[in-house]
Amino acid sequence: MRRYLGIDIGGTFIKFVYKKGDDIEKGKVYIREIISKNRPDLIVDEIRKIVKKYRPDILGVAVAGLIDKKTGVLTASPNIKPLENFPFKDELENSLKIPVYIENDASLAAYGEYLYGAGKGSEILICLTLGTGLGGGAVINGKLLTGVSGSAMEIGHTTIEMDGLPCHCGRKGCLESYVSSYGLERIYYLYTDQKISSSQIITLANEGDLTAMRSMERFSEYLSVGLMNIVHIFNPDRIVLAGGITENYPAVVDMAVSNLKNIAFHLPFRDLTVKRAELKEFSGAYGALGYAENESR
Ligand SMILES: [Zn+2]
After folding, report:
1. Assign residue 55 a region: left if phi > 0, alpha if psi is -120 to 50, beta otherwise?
2. What is the 153 CA–ligand 1 centroid distance (Å)?
3. How far is the CA of 161 from the centre of ligand 1 (A)?
4. Highest taxon of the source (predicted)?
5. pLDDT tens, position by position, 8-32
């Protein structure tokens, strides 16, 4: 019986899901300090430890950034700088001596939700991950949409305000510069002149603080414009929203959907369901697992 391991490398944790037959085990390892050391070999070492414990036959890897499909090199990874321009796939295969399948984390979050979560049975599934950044993934008729180079679905870096707020990618007015944790912090700052973290804003909003609630509402308006663009391009039957912000303040999804109803074409809205992710923080790891399993068949 083949054993599979799916791992999701983020800026703070490596999350993993291991599968052998019907047995599934999951966990996470804290890596923020390792990432700040700017040494890709230390990240490979952490992965080797997990692999040594579970001894998978195949490894799937989800990682934030743009991965060149032809070479397995991460050409850009704003939140995991040590891995930028690093031949990640080759290094992992050389070090671990097992086949490695690597894909963008948001794409694999979509795939994970499609196989195991809120996207099951969907024909055209779009998944957005609202976290430090804003990631996007699409699964169309069961197949991941990766693009020719491997960089499709960078929804976070589509423009919604020309000359808008600066984005971490260097452009201006990207959807991510409003709909992400740092986007939320800026919206709150515009109302209050106070810099507090997105998790503090969410806590305040949950306690009924009016300015925090107003910030969440504004955030949801930007989100609904992003959703409208997706609906008009893809006409999906399902959109799944993942990430800490929607998990900890679910009302943001309801507000965005009710605004979406007012601004989108009626026809594609009629056939759309918007759901929150079901696999919580493990969507990407589940996607990496399923991707390794299906690609190696
Ligand atoms: Zn951007």
Report:
1. left
2. 12
3. 11
4. Bacteria
5. 998 889 999 999 999 999 999 999 8
Q: pLDDT tens for residues 97-108?
A: 999 999 999 999
For residue 189, give both structure tokens: 């700052």
The secondary structure of 26-85 as a DSSP string is: EEEEE-HHHHHTT-HHHHHHHHHHHHHHH--SEEEEEESSEE-TTT--EEE-TT-GGGTT
Provide CATH code, domain 121-277: 3.30.420.40
Q: Which residue spans within the chain are E strands per DSSP?
A: 3-9, 13-20, 23-30, 58-63, 66-67, 74-76, 100-104, 124-130, 134-140, 143-144, 238-242, 273-276
| Residues 217 and 253 sit within 8 Å (Cβ to Cβ) | no
When pLDDT is cut at 50, 70 and 90, the band that residue 35 belongs to is confident
Supply the CATH classification number for the domain 3-108+282-295: 3.30.420.40
Q: What is the pLDDT averaged over residues 116-131?
A: 97
Contact 134, 175 (CB under 8 A): yes
Rounded Cα distance, 294 and 297, in Å:
5
What local confidence, expressed as pLDDT, does residue 27 receive?
97
Distance from the alpha carbon of residue 97 to the mean position of ligand 1, in angstroms: 36
Average pLDDT, the chain: 95
Q: What is the mean pLDDT of residues 40-54?
A: 95
79 Cα: distance to centroid of ligand 1 (angstroms)? 13
pLDDT score, position 97: 96
The alpha carbon of 168 and the centre of ligand 1 are apart by a number of angstroms equal to 6
Residue 79 has pLDDT above 80, yes or no: no
**Is 121-277 the same fold as 3-108+282-295?**
yes
Tokens of 61: 């890897």
